[in-house]
Amino acid sequence: MVGTEDEPLLARIAKGDQTAMRSLFAAHHLRVHRFVLRLVRREDIAEDIVTEVFLDVWRQAARFEGRSSVSTWLLSIARFKAYSALRRRTEAPLDDAFAETIEDQDDTPEVTLQKTDKAGVLRACIDRLSPEHREAIDLVYYQEQSIEDVSRIVGIPENTVKTRVFHARKRLSELCREAGLDRGWP
To answer: Looking at the predicted structure, is the pLDDT value of residue 24 above 80?
Structure first.
């Protein structure tokens, strides 16, 4: 389901149409979940946020103004909720009993194999980018959002988005080179 097909769904959702809500959820939940998971890096928190996003859509569908696509609106809501959750999250102090349960981080044969996998290396390199650069790469390349839509989602000027993408790509190239990843693929 793309762009213009989503707006009539929102109009139906605003009138309480549960079938329309299920359709919108089916069309967008995976994309929203992946985006949020990349931001918060915890599956349980990502699932909660996705639920909150679609609850907000159910409650506020009538407020959609159409200044952007529905997917951009959803990602904007998701981004706001993800960063709010990250600000709220407090880490519990580490006690000795818990410390003993932490798994040894030395490479296992499986991890060694994953390190040779180029996709895994690329994901690891993306994870080493700053949050702003990681977000820009995610929205442009994984979520396939335009520079204009990223600007709306993140709330920054388009030129700032372009600058972030440029610097993110440059840094990602350096990280990949350091990790032994050449430009060729497979």
So the answer is: yes
